[in-house]
Design goal:
The complex is a heterodimer of chains A (247) and B (277).
Chain A (H helix, E strand, L loop, with lengths): L1 H7 L2 H6 L1 H33 L7 H16 L2 H11 L8 H4 L8 H28 L2 H9 L4 H15 L2 H14 L11 H12 L3 H40 L1
Helix pairs in contact in A: 3-4, 3-7, 3-10, 3-11, 3-12, 4-7, 5-7, 7-9, 7-10, 8-9, 10-12, 11-12
Chain B lengths: L1 H32 L14 E5 L8 E3 L2 E3 L1 H13 L3 E5 L5 H6 L5 E2 L7 H4 L2 E3 L4 E10 L14 E5 L3 H9 L4 E5 L2 H10 L4 E5 H10 L3 E13 L2 E3 L3 H16 L2 H10 L16
Parallel strand pairs in B: 1-4, 1-5, 8-9, 8-10
Antiparallel strand pairs in B: 2-3, 5-12, 6-12, 7-10, 7-11
The chains are: A mainly alpha (247), B alpha/beta (277).
């Protein structure tokens, strides 16, 4: 048992490597920050494509649904390998796009951003869809009978209501995304897990890896509490709403 | 009368069945105990569990249950001399010494250089291989020496001597540690890193098997590979050293070496010794 604590909770090793693991963790957060914004936008875009009405848009809807299915089905780790290993070979693209070093970030960072955006865009599209479908049909009917187009209805009536219904599930996706930034270590992005494993290779002690885990804990726990709070508040609203209707 | 006879018959049958089962169990215990005997002459020892980070061609490669490579074949030959059968387990290089020390495996053979740092965790056998590092670059690359890569992007395998060498020699380069050697070679082929510092035989293998890459420079490092056992396992260590000596003397070592490296083994390896600390 003491060996276990020595191996995973050696505070001297944690202290010695604290600043470098923290630096790695900040890279996790940076990757998260860029990828989450792009995934939220891309996911909404996919969800809206999926809601396009009529026969005319059937092929586009089909492609969107196929995309969402494919990217929800293939493990993120494999997408990550595919992009980091495959994109550099697309010779019809200019070198700055195949091997990007934008804003001083190394190419593994951008490969990870793309992989996370593609995969979490698909996940988030499903969350948006749940929100859109939860908007009562009468809202759409009312808007359309007032002469609004499908686009106007979506923009002014449906989406604003839909997003108020989904902060809790969306936050859950964000928590997953944040944790999945550690997968970028396999393509040699120097985030906290990779740096922790480096300490492990040096010292034969896993405490630095554990330290990286603890840093995630510190950030994710408040997020998880926030999810619970939002769910509770939302339920409160529903019950109060029902009460008013009865009265 | 008839009924009693029938009952007696069943009783005897049951007894016979029970004894067969009992003998069967005892017998199977014996066969597992002497499992080494099927492949090694007169082997009566327990199977020798050996950890290795696979793949790392040509030292270790292949699929579970069918591993092969220089390390694997050499370890099998040594185990045979010890009268035991080597059973390989794939593991991660970063944790391999800790796992040996904790007794997860009896021994580890994984193209591991004997270093003081590692010696703190485990004991090493006599060297079984003398190694060099190689600077691997894309075909037609302008880089000819490690020093020229200052300020460039260089791939290495995480936790290896190649990584240490790169850190020491070209501190200003961006060093990318990949989890496995082939990942680093792939990054080189795709152009995301400009060079890879890795064990010479691995580099040679990549040149032969993958193409598109070439060895720019070989860097002697006076590295010696050893087989690791847990500290204090003196008897096991002696047996391994003795087995290694025997396979070197009877020509098996040379045969395996030439099979995997297409080269004659260096003479120094036959006299190299190492004192476990």
């Amino acid at each position: 048992m003491s060996e276990f604590f020595h191996q995973y909770f050696d505070f001297t090793i944690m202290g010695d490597h604290f600043s470098e693991i923290l630096e790695g963790f900040l890279r996790n957060l940076l990757l998260f920050a860029v990828a989450v914004v792009l995934a939220l936008i891309f996911g909404l875009f996919l969800a809206l494509l999926r809601q396009l009405p009529g026969k005319k848009f059937m092929p586009l809807r089909g492609i969107t649904i196929a995309y969402i299915d494919v990217f929800r089905a293939i493990p993120l780790l494999i997408i990550l390998f595919l992009i980091s290993g495959g994109v550099p070979y697309l010779e019809f693209l200019p070198k700055d796009i195949r091997i990007p070093h934008w804003f001083g970030q190394p190419d593994p960072f951008w490969y990870a951003v793309v992989a996370l955006t593609l995969v979490y865009g698909a996940y988030m599209a499903e969350v948006y869809r749940a929100g859109i479908e939860a908007v009562p049909g009468g809202q759409v009917e009312a808007a359309r009978s007032l002469g609004m187009s499908h686009g106007q209805t979506m923009r002014h009536i449906v989406v604003p209501q839909a997003v108020t219904k989904i902060p809790a599930p969306m936050l859950n996706e964000m928590i997953s995304l944040l944790k999945d930034t550690t997968l970028a270590s396999v393509i040699a992005y120097s985030e906290s897990l990779l740096l922790g494993r480096e300490v492990l290779a040096e010292t034969f002690n896993s405490s630095a890896v554990m330290l990286s885990g603890l840093m995630f804990l510190v950030v994710v726990l408040p997020m998880a509490r926030l999810v619970d709070y939002l769910i509770k508040r939302n339920q409160g609203k529903i019950t109060r709403g029902a009460h008013i209707e009865v009265a | 009368m008839r009924k009693t006879r029938l009952a007696a018959f069943f009783a005897v049958l049951l007894l016979a069945l029970a004894s067969v089962v009992a003998i069967g169990c005892g017998g199977s215990d014996e066969t597992t105990g002497g499992g080494g005997g099927t492949t090694s002459e007169g082997g009566s020892g327990e199977p020798l569990s050996v950890g290795s980070d696979i793949p790392y061609p040509p030292f270790e490669q292949g699929k579970p249950g069918n591993y092969t490579g220089f390390d694997i074949e050499l370890m099998e030959a040594i185990a045979e001399k010890m009268g035991r059968k080597a059973e390989f387990q794939d593991t991660s290089f970063e944790t391999i010494f800790r796992d040996v020390q904790q007794g997860k495996f009896d021994a580890a053979i994984s193209a591991a250089t004997i270093t003081e740092e590692r010696e703190k965790a485990v004991d090493f056998s006599n060297p079984y291989y003398l190694s060099e590092q190689a600077l691997l670059v894309a075909e037609g690359s302008p880089f000819k020496e490690l020093k020229e890569l200052e300020g460039k992007t260089v791939g290495v395998q995480q936790g290896t001597t190649g990584q240490e060498l790169a850190k020491e020699e070209i501190g200003g380069a961006e060093i990318r540690p990949f989890p496995e050697g082939p990942d680093a070679v792939n990054a080189l082929k795709s152009g995301t890193v400009e060079a890879v510092v890795i064990d010479a035989p691995v580099a040679q293998n990549a040149v032969e098997k993958s193409g598109g890459v070439e060895i720019a420079e070989k860097i002697p490092t006076e590295e010696e590979y050893g087989i690791a056992v847990a500290q204090g396992e003196t008897e096991l260590l002696e047996e391994i050293n003795q087995g290694l000596k025997e396979v070197q003397e009877d020509g098996t070592y040379k045969k395996i070496y030439e099979k995997w490296f297409h080269l004659e083994p260096p003479k120094a390896i036959f006299t190299a010794t190492h004192e476990a600390e």
